[in-house]
Design a protein that fits this description.
Blueprint (H helix, E strand, L loop, with lengths): L2 H6 L2 H9 L5 E5 L5 H10 L2 E6 L2 H9 L3 E4 L14 E7 L8 H11 E9 L4 H10 L23 H10 L2 E10 L2 E3 L3 H4 L2 E8 L2
Parallel strand pairs: 1-2, 1-4, 2-3, 4-5
Antiparallel strand pairs: 5-8, 6-7, 6-8
């Protein structure tokens, strides 16, 4: 990754790019404006496509020269055959789907590996807001009021680990981010974002 890319890229996008092997086929679910797909194309030589429901974000992707389909993540994977992609990415989107278990299982069918990035709803600053202010947390990573949030599921890093254990999904790598830095101590308490590289157990 060149210095210009390093300076302008979000940390979690850099970490995701490090997890993706060069020349991979990538499907980005909830790809937003396409910044992550563009990064993978430029720095890893990936060939990829995205699925996005927001029309304005789709226009941004098209302007970047990316392949993107208008669709709902909850129902958008049935058209893809098994192992169509090397990686399926669910970053900042899993908490917004109605049926996350189904989406993860389908992603593991469509992709050889999946990369999941989640906001940690149980980080310290969120807990303090609930405890002392008696209000639903509002943070940089979760900048929504209760009445306008797109999030329909609320989970922590610990919740996601337990889910993978229950569903017999292998966590190959796990990363935690707080205040734009990777952290290693007490991630469920201190991290704002958790990143996971997952695969089926054999």
């Amino acid at each position: 990754m060149d210095n210009t890319v390093k300076k302008t890229t979000r940390l979690e996008h850099k970490i995701i790019a490090d997890l993706v092997a060069p020349g991979s086929r990538v499907l980005d679910l909830g790809c937003g404006n396409g910044s992550l797909l563009e990064l993978l194309t430029k720095t890893k030589g990936s060939t990829g496509t995205g699925i996005e429901i927001d029309e304005e974000a789709i226009y941004d992707c098209i302007e970047r020269g990316l392949s993107v389909s208008h669709g709902d993540i909850d129902t958008g994977l049935s058209d893809f055959s098994d192992a169509s992609f090397d990686y399926v990415i669910l970053h900042e989107s899993l908490q917004q789907v109605l049926h996350p278990e189904k989406v993860i299982i389908e992603s593991l069918r469509v992709g050889k590996k999946i990369i999941v990035g989640i906001p940690n709803f149980c980080h310290l600053s969120g807990r303090l807001q609930v405890c002392f202010l008696g209000r639903v947390p509002v943070t940089t990573e979760l900048p929504y009021q209760w009445y306008d949030t797109p999030n329909v599921k609320f989970l922590s890093i610990k919740d996601f680990r337990n889910f993978c254990k229950q569903k017999d999904i292998a966590i190959e790598k796990e990363k935690a981010i707080a205040y734009n830095r990777e952290i290693y101590l007490l991630p469920n308490l201190l991290a704002h974002i958790g990143l996971f590289l997952l695969s089926k157990k054999h």
